[in-house]
Amino acid sequence: MPLVGIREILVEARTRRYGVLSLLAGNLEMIIGQIRAAEELRAPLILAFSQELTPQVPLELAMPCLVRAASMAHVPVATILDHGRDLDTIVRAIRLGTSSVMFDGSSLPYEENVRHTKEVVRIAHAVGVSVEAELGTVVGLAGSANSEAKGVCSLFTDPDLASDFVQRTDVDALAISFGNVHGRYQGDPSLDLCRLRAIHSRVSVPLSMHGASGLTEALYREIVASGISKVCYYTAAGIRAASDLRQMLGPAGQNDVCYHEVIARAIRFFETDTKALIKLMGCAGAA
Ligand SMILES: [Zn+2]
User: Fold this and answer.
1) Residue 71 pLDDT more than 90?
2) CATH code at 29?
3) How far apart are alpha carbons 246 and 267 in whole angstroms?
């Protein structure tokens, strides 16, 4: 199936009110397991590669893997450079064939965020690449098992600004802040769903939620029903994957395990885990 952009996948998700997972795809085990799950459940999927993974995993090696895997899939799969913070990296990702990029200018003053996002959109749209941008700040550290964060109200997305931002920048998806945090939540997540619904009613493009690990099943249903179309999920899956491998390996010296067996186990883990998540987002059968 040809590679698709997040725009194609998410417009339909917004109309039909289901969530599409955007999963960190940092190695082959993750990529293979996640795509198998999407194919088995006939669900669209987004494979994300974060700039934060470089330089350990070079973009030049990772992005072509994501792109190739997405094009080989039997369901629509998009690729995205997650949290691109500079034009150089974004242009490199586009040259490496990604179907979508995220520009994260959320730490910039509003007018600067608009200006930089517009520039990324101009370059990306010229070659048919979709763009996600962020307005308001999602605090916390993605993939950090040891630190916890709480949403900061003053950094939440303003619904009126969101509408202005989308009109002026022409982005394809907007990442918003409404109590969501990267990494682990401190205490129970406290999400401002009224704000989410207000943004959804004022903004014409699909909305993206970063930091979607660790919610209750009921809350996933609520965020999707309230207007989130793209659900970026990693930390909780990363912690579950490590614990699954710990079970297999046991205490040092107890089990004789060869590395390729670890690879096979990890692929199986990501396949099973992703299937459960897809069902939770209500997008099984959507592809
Ligand atoms: Zn994020």
Assistant:
1) yes
2) 3.20.20.70
3) 15
